[in-house]
């Protein structure tokens, strides 16, 4: 599996974990432990990157959520579909706090929305 494919897979797992945390309102460590138990074995690099992203989003959630609320017109975070909200959280975290190129973040977010969200998510 290529590096790009591993990063894409890690983002998919990150979104799924963020969704689970959003639904269950669990602590990060417990949620991640339960999350990984429910999946087939995952490459260590994918798991490591996914956990870094989940923890990063969680650590900076207030800042990320404020940026989303500020940019969205007529849509409070609480009204957004959980998948869409968490795709945005991941993307905004990567845009604000990592060195991932903007084009990559946007493309990956669109693809995540298309794959896991509703027809209009992408």
Order of helices and strands: HHHHHH
Number of helices: 6
* Rg calculated over all Cα atoms: 14 Å
- Terminal Cα span: 25 Å
Which oligomerization state do the chains in this entry correspond to? single chain
The helix content, as a percent range, equals over 70%
Q: Low-confidence spans: pLDDT under 50, at least 5 residues?
A: none
Which terms summarize this structure?
122 residues; 0% strand; single chain
Question: How would you describe the overall organization of this protein?
Answer:
The protein is built from six helices and no strands. The mean pLDDT is 92. By secondary structure, the protein is mostly helical.
Quick take:
Helices cover about 75% and strands about 0% of the residues. By secondary structure, the protein is mainly alpha-helical. Helix 1 (about 5-25) packs across helix 5, helix 3 packs across helix 5 (about 80-95) and helix 4 crosses helix 5 (about 80-95).
Write the layout of secondary structure elements.
Elements: H1 3-24, H2 28-37, H3 44-59, H4 61-71, H5 82-97, H6 102-116
Helix pairs in contact: 1-2, 1-3, 1-5, 3-5, 4-5, 5-6
């Amino acid at each position: 599996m290529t590096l790009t494919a591993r990063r894409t897979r890690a983002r998919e797992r990150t979104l799924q974990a963020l969704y689970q945390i959003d639904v269950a309102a669990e602590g990060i460590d417990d949620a991640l432990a339960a999350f990984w138990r429910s999946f087939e074995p995952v490459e260590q690099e994918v798991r490591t990157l996914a956990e870094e992203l989940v923890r990063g989003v969680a650590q900076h959630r207030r800042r990320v959520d404020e940026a989303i609320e500020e940019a969205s017109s007529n849509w409070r975070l609480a009204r957004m579909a959980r998948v869409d909200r968490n795709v945005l959280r991941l993307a905004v975290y990567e845009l604000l706090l990592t060195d991932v190129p903007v084009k990559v973040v946007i493309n990956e977010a669109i693809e995540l929305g298309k794959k896991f969200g509703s027809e209009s998510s992408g």
